[in-house]
Model the fold of this input.
Amino acid sequence: MKVSIITVVFNGEKTIRSCIDSVLKQSYKDIEYIIIDGKSTDTTPEIVKSYGTKIAVFLSEKDAGIYDAMNKGISLATGEVIGILNADDFYHDAFVIEHIVDRLIETNAEAIYGDLIYVNADDTHRVTRYWKSGNYQRSNFLFGWMPPHPTFFLRSSSYKKFGTYRLDLGSAADYELMLRMMYKHQISVTYQPQITTVMRTGGVSNKSLDNRLKANTSDRMAWTLNGIKPYWFTLWLKPLRKVLQFVYKPKYTE
Done:
């Protein structure tokens, strides 16, 4: 089973090496690694090129944003399964993809997700938040749940059947895609109960109430565009669920 990993980057010279290295050190070897660069003006292209043929596809050109770049990567992918790992993120250990593939083979699921930890941008051993996803039930979406997108792997056949990322929803595009795939079309989903992905963060969120209201509007549009209706409280529970992610924070060790 070939797995395509897509990394989207723009001026990511500070973090792109750790991202790439976490993919290349995977124990599972049937990986097609695709990097889509938004025409970076720093040394990102030179860093990527230094890996030579270890990078299956490298495309550097202007894009219409992060989700446009992801769609470009999906269109170029030839793997049966596609995962997306952004330039600020890296895989937790060398066995992530091996475990993902084993679980997909065992369950024959169309999608799989795991757990995510956020770490301090300057000290990646300091965990600031732990997103323990839990087992999947379709009804979870009605109570503000969603899986962490950086841990989400989807069969390419589902992208071909149900579409890729919408470019008119801003940062809610990943939420809309997973809602569309999992809730609307009810594809088969399985959970990998382990930390698969590490994400750097700048620290405490500085989102204003205005930003939260805009995000809430985009989240609501994700339901509307798919012809489905949440409960009145669904989209207010979504940010509240994050509170518990700050309670238990395991130490990350490489």
